[in-house]
Amino acid sequence: MQHDLLWMGFLFFNMPSCGHTEVPFKVTVTLDHNWPRIYGGETVTIRCEIQGGGQSNWTYECRKNQTIEKTGTSSEYRIIKAKQSDSGEYSCRGRRDRFSSTEWSDAVSLTVYEFVPVLSVSPSWLSPGASVTLSCEVEEPSARWRFFWYKAVPAPPVSPYNFKLLLPISINGTIDNSHIVHGQTSTAGYVCEARRGEQVVKSKPKFVWSADFQPGPSLKVNPERVQHFSSDSVSFHCEGNSTAWRLMRVTETGQHSRLNSSNWVTGQESIINNWSDGGIFWCETGLGEFSNAVNITLQTDDYHDGVILVSPVHPVTEGDPVTLSCRDKKQNLLSNVFFYHNNKLINNDGREELKISAVSKSDEGFYKCQHSGKESPRSWMSVRVFLANVPSPVGSSSNVLLIIGPCSGILLIVLLFLCYYIRSKAPEEPGEVTYAQIEVKNFGNKRRPPKTEECAVYSEVKRGAADLIPVYADINHQNESKKRRKGEQRSAVFDVIYSEIKSVSILDNNATKQDVGCSE
User: Fold this and answer.
1) Which of 18, 54, 99, 494 is most buried (CB neighbours < 10 A)?
2) Other C-beta atoms within 10 Å of 310: how many?
3) Picking from 205-209, 306-310, 439-443, 466-470, which range would have the lowest pLDDT averaged per residue?
């Protein structure tokens, strides 16, 4: 009954006859916002204006797609936290009473766009000393967005992640849609947030991976190889001090998933059978930590006669031996196999295994094997390089100068300081001048890394009757182009011969100055 009365009332107000008149005022409707586009979460104001309507007590009606959305004395219709469903054609009119109204205004179109910022990280796999660049992609980047950067922190027992604002980014955000993180050494998740007016939208977490074991939690795989058949049973073991764990995976298509039966488990081992997809695996702990990551490649059982490459799942250390092999679905070691490095054939004789006695950084890259015309997927082998393994170049003239130059400079400073000190303390009377001949010799090819702080000259000082010891010294370097015997190399390290300081009369003009030279 009530519905029928409302419907009859609506018909009464909208009938052009029966005493209803249209008031001759022009009505316009506008959208009040500062952006070229409206995105979900923003507030939109639709304003109805009656030109020449004066101060009459108007009642305003606003409709969307021919359906009245709002009636009231306010000329504004505000949509708070707009959604895509709020999109449509909006028009309005004014009513003085139930018998008279203006015409409906021309309609304005409102489109509400839903979007999520897209965060990208570069590089996606960490290398020692590398910085990580975060980039937040938004639609219409020139539309006065402000950006905020967060670290994703695992947060049991319910929330997937908490977000910690990165420092020293201002609490007001930045206008730059990129940010560089320095000193990141372990696996980490990041999120960017874009704000404009009342709109706040966050990206999905994006990860930068570290394959190296770090202090804290670690992930180990058994069998310890990159490639597996989809029917293989593989154990993932999370190690560390936490009592709550979850095993996570990101597939090649970017799908982010948890592989535990529940969100957080107390057990540290997860076994996967009958795989559906490979991807990047890592552990997260109840303490808010990430483990190292491993990249698993899956060979589906559709390839009944397929082969897989057996290669290390963790980075190998430079100088260590590495063996690669090729196996079939029954885990048989195959012979007459060809191996490829970065799609380049590296052996043409066919063999059972590829053995690298001492792996180097140049061996890093993608590998695959081929047997009887069948190829395995390719997998990346990472080589870890320690600074201690990087040889320091020696024997060059530039290194010789690096050794002699600082040594001589230090000696000159010491001598000049000594001269100044003694002269400031001594009376002006005839005395003795002290001079020294310091000889630096080459003691063969004994090499050690050059360290300028170890460069020092020691001497035994014998003093004459007088305490006046003004010192004058020139330091001369021998010509580096001096002829050497055939096959002889100049060592980068020189040893100092202790010298005896001799004294002569200050009145002897020939003794006022003495060269200090370095000879081979």
Assistant:
1) 494
2) 22
3) 466-470
User: What is the 3-state composition of the chain as percent helix, strand, coil, each rounded to the nearest 5?
Assistant: 10, 40, 50
Looking at the structure, do residues 509 and 413 belong to the same domain, yes or no? Answer: yes
* Alpha-carbon separation of residue 38 from 32, 46, 84, 176, 196 (angstroms): 11, 13, 10, 21, 10
Answer whether residue 145 shows pLDDT above 70: yes
Taking only Cα atoms into account, the Rg of the chain, rounded to an integer number of angstroms, comes to 41
**Confidence tier at 136 by pLDDT (50, 70, 90):** very high
CATH number, residue 16: 2.60.40.10
**In the structure encoding, which two tokens stand for residue 206, read together?**
């994006």
Q: Which long-range contacts (CB under 8 A, 24 or more apart) does 157-162 make?
A: 157/244, 157/263, 157/264, 158/263, 161/189, 161/191, 161/205, 162/288
**Averaged pLDDT, 312-321:** 95
Task: Work out the pLDDT band at 418, boundaries 50, 70, 90.
Answer: low
User: Which backbone phi and psi does 515 adopt, to 5 degrees?
Assistant: -80, 140
Residues of the chain with pLDDT > 90, as a percent, come to: 37
How confident is the model at residue 434, as a pLDDT? 44
Pairing of strands 440-442, 112-113: unpaired
What angle is formed at CA 199 by the lines to CA 84 and CA 142, rounded to 5 degrees? Answer: 95
* Number of structural domains in the chain: 4
Regarding whether 173 and 133 lie in a shared domain, the answer is yes
Residues 125 and 192 in one domain: yes
The answer to whether residues 383 and 403 belong to one domain is no
Cβ–Cβ contacts within 10 Å for residue 217, how many? 24
pLDDT of residue 357: 95
Residues spanned by the domain of 155: 118-208
Residue 410 has pLDDT above 70, yes or no: no
Over the stretch 387-409, which tens digit does the pLDDT of each residue have? Answer: 544 443 333 333 434 444 454 55
CA dist 266 → 157, 242, 258, 262, 282 (Å): 12, 9, 15, 10, 16
- String of b and e for 295-309 (b: at least 16 CB within 10 Å)? bbbbbeeeeeebbbb
Q: Are residues 410 and 499 in the same domain?
A: yes
Taking the C-alpha atoms of residue 318 and residue 6, their distance in angstroms, rounded to an integer, is 83
- What the block records as the tokens of 173 is 């955000």
CA distance 50 to 105: 9
Three-state DSSP string of 428-482: CCCCEEEECCCCEEECCCCCCCCCHHHCCCCEECCCCCCCCCCCCEEEECCCCCC
